[in-house]
Amino acid sequence: GASIGIAMFPDDGESSEHLMKNADAAMYQAKALGRNRYCFFEPAIEARLRSEMELFTALRQAIENEQFQLHYQPIVPLSDALGSYGEALLRWPGGGSQASPGLFIPFAEQHGLIEDIGHFVLHAACRFVARSIEQGQPQSISINLSARQLAMSDLPDILSQAVMQHGIPAAAIELELTESSLIQNLTAISHTLTRLRQAGFRLAIDDFGAGYSSLNYLVELPVDKVKIDQRFIWSLFNSPRNQAVVKAILSLARSIGIQTVAEGVETAEQLAFLQAHGCHYVQGYYLARPMNEQDYLVFQALAQNKSPA
């Protein structure tokens, strides 16, 4: 098979260099559309490539200058026997129109920048946990791992060295894994997760139920929690079938000793349903939005009926 980019003289360039540049851009467009096809150059292709290059450059500068921040969203227990914790969420204050995590994080993963961003998130979260311990209000935080990070054979060593460097227990960090990242090489990932579990880290499957191998992951992987995909929670009262699916996930997880977290809780009715059917934790705008470090500590202190540190 072949991916072919075509540029036409004189509309797409009047010099060989310009024609080759635009033909090359069209070839990358052919690859992006699924490969094994041809694509004619269009001005929109050049504009898209220019935009991608600007985003790549801006992300590199943000990484080098540590322009990212972490905000934290509380994950609230529905039982007094469980401790509360929070999820670290990446923010890019200087990113302008490109600052949406849904835009720049997939782009960073696609263009080889996600390892550096993951390094920032890991150490920023560890520093926060260390500060919370010093203030007498120890916190546990979950962070997301990308597919590229999971593919790294030395990931357990990297994570273990990070928590040792900051003087915090590995159990204070929970690692969230998306189903899309697990599908690539389940055998190798299972070995990596076993090593992480042995090192003391807690493991959770994010967006559970969205993929076709969800149940297989519960059997094959040493996970502590599943986070029910927020789309199930949003559509909870659209039909009895949606409720049946959520109840089945809660019942199955409980029967095999795995805790559950419901994402995207936005109404009192959703919260009441989840509590009635044995969900362990809830997360969503109904309870708290992502917030900065100090506001998060105040929220957790109030939630635990303590004075803020």
Please explain how this structure is put together.
There is one protein chain. The chain is of the alpha/beta class and 309 residues long. It contains 13 helices and ten strands. The protein has helices at 16-32, 43-64, 101-110, 114-134, 147-150, 155-166, 179-182, 186-198, 214-220, 230-234, 240-255, 268-276, 293-303; strands at residues 4-6, 38-40, 69-77, 85-91, 141-145, 173-178, 202-208, 225-228, 259-262, 281-282. The strands form two sheets. Strands 3-4-5-6-7-8-9-10 form an eight-stranded mixed beta barrel, surrounded by four helices. Strand 3 and strand 4 form a beta hairpin. Helix 4 packs parallel to helix 6 and helix 6 runs parallel beside helix 8 (186-198). It is globular and about 75 Å long. 33% of the residues are buried. The model has no long low-confidence stretch (mean pLDDT 91).
Mean pLDDT: 91
Q: How would you sum up the major sheet?
A: 8 strands, mixed, barrel
The ordered string of helix (H) and strand (E) elements is EHEHEEHHEHHEHHEHEHHEHEH
Q: Into which percentage range does the β-strand content fall?
A: 15-25%
Kindly provide the radius of gyration, computed on alpha-carbon positions and rounded to a whole number of angstroms: 22 Å
Biggest β-sheet: strands ordered side by side in the sheet: 3-4-5-6-7-8-9-10
Structural class: alpha/beta
The count of β-strands is 10
Tell me the helix content: 40-55%
Shape: globular
Task: Please mark out the parts with pLDDT under 50 across 5 or more consecutive residues, or reply none.
Answer: none
Tally the helices: what do you get? 13
Termini gap: 63 Å
